Amino acid sequence: MSTVQEPTPRWSTLASKPSSSVIRDLLKLPAGVISFAGGLPSPEGFPLDEIAKACQTVIAKEGKHALQYSMVEGEIALRREIARRETQKGIPTEFEQVQIVSGSQQALDLIARIFIDKGDKVLVESPTYMGALQAFDLCEPEYVSLPCDTEGLNPAAFTEEVCRGAKFAYVMPTASNPTGLTISEERRKLLCEKAREYDMLLVEDDPYGELWYDQQPPASLRQWAPERVIRLGTLSKILAPGFRLGYVIAPADVLDKIAQMKQAMDLHTATFTQLISAQVFSEDLLVHHLPSVRERYKTHAKAMLDALEEFMPEGVTWTHPTAGMFIWVTLPEKMDATEMARDALAHKVAYVPGEAFYAGSAVEKNHFRLSFVTVDPERIREGVKNLAEVIRLRI
Ligand code: PMP
After folding, report:
1. What ipTM is given for this predicted complex?
2. Where is the Aminotransferase class I/classII large domain (predicted)?
């Protein structure tokens, strides 16, 4: 019998690029570990009954339409509901301004493809969302990292030199991933004024804006500069990440380019989940659901903040989020949170080392991200106690 020769893969340059495995390895968690490393929303918050009801209505009312191909821009019913919800939040929005995408992660990819050529300047917060860096990296930009302080991105970072020629600045205004920080209204306004002054686009990524604890965050950057803000939203955190539904609200010329690019990538986003979501929104099925998600996240955040206060040694600081899912911890400068992650695992607790959230060479190693929404409050306390012991041994 002749032997079959293994094929020689002739990978593209892109596929051949080495990708960092440090974080991936760390996240392969052994059993029994209390994981603050995940970025998933709490499945306890998935509105199963509401979705089951909407699903039945869609099948009964428009089943054939729901299973058919659709338009690249997205289903009008969902675009209308999203425009209505955005308008309710204070920014008048028409459905024509809304493009549906397969999760806001796809929006990040599309934005990279329509704006970035190799070597182009892109401004990012430091630290920033790891998934945005992964999406942008494929188009090989030159990043400029904008330093953040305890109130998030400081508009003072937008100088003429920094902004000159930049394709866009990528900003998370509310409950940033990873820091949990929310940018104040005054700073939002100033960022927009600077973007106008230096003729720059702002990509506003806002997956956590509805997950506030006590008080609604300030309005979208669109309020201050609608003509230069590309706003990304998602249903992942308020409905179901498995639906893979996000949206882009942007000026018409940007939307046109996004639609053209998306057509080439995947024709359109799944019709079925779009219609189910439109149904959920049109019947206001989330009216009771969203407040309970907010309450749960607030309780978990408090449990973690209380535990940090109780157990962390002197010299360790952390952010105090008012929305979202993350707390950012800063160790004394000499410490390395990537190295320490292995000790933490030995003490049955996991986090994401901060280095994953920095662009290019602007890496700081003395931070880590804690996610608290998928761990019960008693386990949060136990996990933070373990973590504090690990830190105490190294400090
Ligand atoms: N942006 C940020 C800041 C995120 O945290 C996430 C999810 N972790 C996304 C975008 C992607 O979300 P999705 O694709 O599920 O909409």
Report:
1. 0.99
2. 45-386
